[in-house]
Amino acid sequence: MKKIIIVFTLILLMIGVAEISAQSKNGEFGKEKIEIGKLLDDFNVAAAKADFNAYFNFYAEESTFIGTDATEIWDKQAFMVWAKPYFDKKKTWNFTSLKRNIYFSRDGKLAWFDELLDTQMKICRGSGVVEKLNGQWKVKQYVLSVTVPNDVVDKVVVEKTPIEDLLIQKLKQ
Q1: Three-state SS string across 4-26, please?
Q2: What are the residue boundaries of the structural domains of the chain, listed by start?
Q3: One pLDDT digit (tens) per residue for the chain, 173 residues
Q4: How do 136-146 and 59-66 pair as beta strands?
Q5: What whole-number distance in Å separates Cα of residue 28 and Cα of residue 104?
Q6: In what order do the strands lie in the sheet with 136-146?
Q7: Backbone angles phi, psi at 153, to 5 degrees
Q8: What CA–CA distance (Å, rounded) separates 140 from 123?
Q9: Entry pTM
């Protein structure tokens, strides 16, 4: 009987240590962090599968997508119009998260994230804001950026200067 009590106590102790370890790994908002991670993974899968409805259901009705080009900033409806031909032709994007950080407002109703993504453009950065609406996390803002290694940034600036000088002039007017 004594051995059974010791074994049972050890099992309970191990469960408790695993629980504490999981809580410390995920922090105060561990469950929400897992939910948001799944949302972002499913969001990327929906795009890769060219599932238009599933992809855009991840966005809040009032949301913004900011793309890699300086001219790409759309509300949800405009982004849907822009993206529809790509989804129809099954010529969408396939992003996989390499590393992700998720942070929360004190009340836990807003979260923001940044992640490095493996894409057809090599490493990109996805970042954004999600809000808990009617019990579900929704994307309020998504920003996609192309990363530029410091060793080649001067070459990239040379390439983009003629295009962006015109845009700078236009924006200053």
Answers
A1: HHHHHHHHHHHHHHHHHHHHHHH
A2: 2-172
A3: 555 555 444 444 454 444 434 444 457 899 999 999 999 999 999 999 999 999 999 999 999 999 999 999 999 999 999 999 999 999 999 999 999 999 999 999 999 999 999 999 999 999 999 999 999 999 999 999 999 999 999 999 999 999 999 999 999 99
A4: parallel
A5: 9
A6: 73-75, 59-66, 136-146, 122-133, 110-119, 96-104
A7: -60, -35
A8: 23
A9: 0.82
Strands 96-104 and 110-119, bridge-based pairing: antiparallel
User: Per CATH, which fold does 2-172 belong to?
Assistant: Nuclear Transport Factor 2; Chain: A, (3.10.450)
For residue 104, which amino acid is it?
F
The number of residues making up the chain comes to 173
CA dist 42 and 136 (Å) reads 14
- Computed over its alpha carbons, how large is the radius of gyration of the chain? 22
Question: Using N-to-C axis directions, what is the helix angle for 2-26 and 30-48, rounded to 10°?
Answer: 60
